Amino acid sequence: MFLTGDRFAFTFTEAPSAKAPRSPFFKFDKESSWQATRVLMFSGGLDSLSGAVEEIAEHGQRVALVSHFSATKIAPVQRYMQRSLADAFGANTCQHVPVQVQMMGRSLKEGTHRSRSFLFAALGAITAEAFDLNRVSFHENGVVSLNLPPVGNVLGTRATRTTHPQTLSRFTALLGQVFQGAMRVDNPYFWRTKKEVVETIARLNMAEQIAVSRSCADVHNQTRQHPHCGRCSQCIDRLEGSRTDVRDREIALSYVRNAQAFEYMTPEDLERSLPAVLDAVMHVQQPPETALDMIRGLLARHGSSVAGVMRKALDQRAAGSFPAHSLPRLYGEMQTQVLLPTVAVAAAPAGRAEPETIAVEIDGAARWVRVGPHITFQRDANADLLLVLAESWLSGAGQGLTPLDYPCISAPELARRLGLESEEALRRRVLRARNALQKKFASSGLDADATREIIENVPWQGYRLAPDRVTVRRRVDKG
């Protein structure tokens, strides 16, 4: 099964009577004439809260909020949040459909909940059928839905693809057959990051509910004093708390390191380093190349938001001033160590010679740059970018710095110098420059792969021309 990586065997027993017993799960009022126009799975977490708020406040829907709970700790939170929605937008805008399902017996206890979305989807589909609807929606940000591993060894039995595009596509196919018609299971938030989800709640004036929501995956160990474990990826998104356990620290650090890598990845980097992303590409209703680039953009926005939080924290205070096991302290200390990246980097082919240094010649007055013996750019966006970075390189050389200490230009500052409106626009500018260099080198019979290393982005610091890959000089006027 794609959802969990497991194989399941089912044994069916014929019912003693053709007449099915009435289900005690759904407590619909016989006198009620309320009719839902949308069925949403409602966990009580940030993403499902945002989805409910948006469907009601922005799209004018009447929503059935279907909740499953196996632990009584989460049920009061779900009820409170539904009442808050009804108070804010009107009693007719939403109804709560809670369903309690529990496994019986100690030998049947299962801590991973890997297949829980199969149960959720079934409950949602039954509810939709009851309202004569054919759509069920999970709301979960795309970074969580993609389920890219937080660390290289966190795989297998605790991996989950609960709202992965391929999972929802398979649910749609299966439930369409079960209900002998169309039954769509989707995730309207796949193209959003957690930051964008939270911003939606705030924009629709429900920010006070953010603190009430429960996103933690470890429901059974929650207490009133500690409603979030601080270890799962959902908690890392929300909390800066202390992490003393070695495994917890590594998961948190890997989460931030991955986000940092995502910030600057190209589609090619993504496909090479995380081939699991291709499991989603064919299931998002976009051409494959477009889908891959859109997923890259999603991960880049996520990376930018996470890295931005860390940059802001470490800009305001020295890492050593944070509590000993807090994430800013751990990450600040990590920056002084030599660590292998969490996201795999493709190894160079065996036997490949170390590439030669590439000469870069510049003329600022003419807006002219030559890279290598033949490649020139003049009076265009690529030339402007290379000129700014080359001037910074010359500054480092002029100060007598060692190559690794050559200065970087932060993304906001580089965007400002180039007259760009955002860091996302800057990333696109850098990507286009890299692509232009690659194409020009290839057409000249030079090593096109070497161009990927010319413009370097150093995590937490910014962009520069790679000091160990290029030498920069000003063009001499021979007239």
TrEMBL record:
Source organism superkingdom: Bacteria
InterPro entries reported in the protein's UniProt record: QueC (IPR018317), Rossmann-like_a/b/a_fold (IPR014729)
SUPFAM superfamilies associated with the record: Adenine nucleotide alpha hydrolases-like
An example Gene Ontology biological process: tRNA queuosine(34) biosynthetic process
This protein's UniProt keywords: Queuosine biosynthesis
Pfam families: QueC
This protein's record includes keyword Transport: no
Protein name as catalogued: 7-cyano-7-deazaguanine synthase
Provenance organism: Dinoroseobacter shibae (strain DSM 16493 / NCIMB 14021 / DFL 12)
